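Summary: Need help interpreting a holo structure output

Steps to reproduce:
1. Submit the protein chain below together with the SMILES for NAP.
2. Request a joint structure prediction with the ligand placed.
3. Inspect the structure token block that comes back.

Expected: a single structure record containing both the chain and the bound molecule.
Actual: see attached output.

Input attached:
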Amino acid sequence: MVIFGASGDLTHRLLFPALYNLCRTGLIPQPLAIVGVDIVGQSVDDWRQSLRKMLESFVNNPNSENSIDAVDEGVWQRLTTRMTYVQGDFSDRGLFEKLRLHLHDVARDCQTAGNCLFYLAVADRFFGPLVEQLGHAGLLDEELRDGVPQRWRRVVIEKPFGHSIDSARELNTRIRRDLREEQIFRIDHFLGKETVQNILVLRFANGIFEPLWDRDHIDHVQITAAETVGVETRGRFYERTGALRDMVPNHLFQLLAMIGMEPPNSFNADAVRAKKTELLQAIHPISPENAVRGQYGSGTVLGRPVPGYRQEPNVAPDSGTETYVALKLGIDNWRWAGVPFYLRTGKHLTARTTEIAVQFRRAPYALFRETPVERLPPNILTLRIQPDEGLSVSFNAKRPGSEIEIDGVAMDFSYREYFGPLAAVGYETLIYDCLIGDAILFQRADTVEAAWCAVQRVIDYWAREPAKEFPNYAAGSAGPDAAAQLLARDGRAWSPIRAEHPHKALRP
Ligand SMILES: NC(=O)c1ccc[n+]([C@@H]2O[C@H](COP(=O)([O-])OP(=O)(O)OC[C@H]3O[C@@H](n4cnc5c(N)ncnc54)[C@H](OP(=O)(O)O)[C@@H]3O)[C@@H](O)[C@H]2O)c1
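--- attached output ---
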């Protein structure tokens, strides 16, 4: 595994801890050699030490989902004895010649059979040039026998994959000059989460949900990714990106695709990815009237006063960048025609939560005197992606007593309570899948392009018509009023943004 950007934040905080967790659970194929490549001048021992320091920060850390008891010395040794470090500048051809010779030695000494996973943990401006450099040095050549690689070469590409439909197409064209589509693993780390993968199991391994999964039974779907953090130190990056580009065509649309896709013929990567792509291609182009943007002003988040977005470091004092977006979209196919999907994401909101709420149509008629059907809470299936992974179903029940009184209750399943905690940073499954060559959780070129296509109209409109009313929501609130109106005009309302189980909130 060759990591470009070996000294960077992603490698330290997520990639290496994920490799450690995989090694601990026996899921690293032996022998694995890890080669770090970065401009930072340091020895392999310095690199090991900085990775070790990061790993130590997870020990008994109650604030991390990756809290571990101790660094296991056996695991550490297994993972780090075959580590090497190559220093150089990505723009220097000489670096790739040096790397070619180095990988030749690594293949011989570590018996890796010449298989290579190149992980581009670098800023997106390097994705195209790095692939070209690797291709030019002959490092992407595979030995194919009957179309099956005997010695494989794969490239993992981080997000963001383009900034618009044009730049995504351009990047796809550029990297496919040197790579077959099967060699490309475009990562979206949301797909590494257990609950996201569980969406397919929930839908296609149970008989009870799929018959209800259509426009006849579902009233609408809400997808929420709410953060309590602001832009922190990422002002420069965020100013160019904004909430729509940062979250919607990738993370939120991946959730949408999982919830809305047709059943695939098999769990083969291409069968699943084809169905996800079809769903994204069926999104009706989103019109600007169905898109709300917001930017946080100062406020109080989790009891702490925070400044507004325009006062954050490296942010323009009159910035027009959105930190919140809400969209209403429709899907033009037989299953979903007429069912609105409402998506929202934002920074500095009331609580940190990512969830999908599938709201079913109401019972057609309430038999209970003095309980009009509009007063019965609707049935909602909520899939909690984070932080408290699980799902719940809400329904109506009779309150004990001689009077007929109806109350909304919920059945709840919590991953942590049922299966016990599993230390993970969220990259474990993704890295493992790259190593075994399973592309099911990675985005294909057409999937990425379909996603950008769906949002391009809004991106263009917002670029032409700068927002006049920013800031338009207080940090620590549920977002701008216009987002509430987006649903109110359809006679609906957003689910409250809350971090705890819905059943706790429902209990009187
Ligand atoms: N960090 C995260 O939590 C996170 C999460 C999801 C996705 N990602 C994505 O992952 C990628 C990496 O992010 P990151 O936060 O790890 O970035 P980063 O901390 O800047 O790491 C990149 C590394 O590459 C080095 N580098 C820069 N220019 C170079 C050159 N010309 N030649 C050789 N090395 C060079 C940097 O060295 P210098 O520091 O000296 O420039 C740095 O060590 C990005 O695409 C990002 O969008 C990151």
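--- end attachment ---

Reviewer comment: The CA atoms of residues 368 and 403 lie 11 Å apart. The pocket of NAP is lined by residues 5, 7-10, 13, 38-40, 89-91, 121-124, 158-159, 189 (CB under 6 Å).
Status: needs-info
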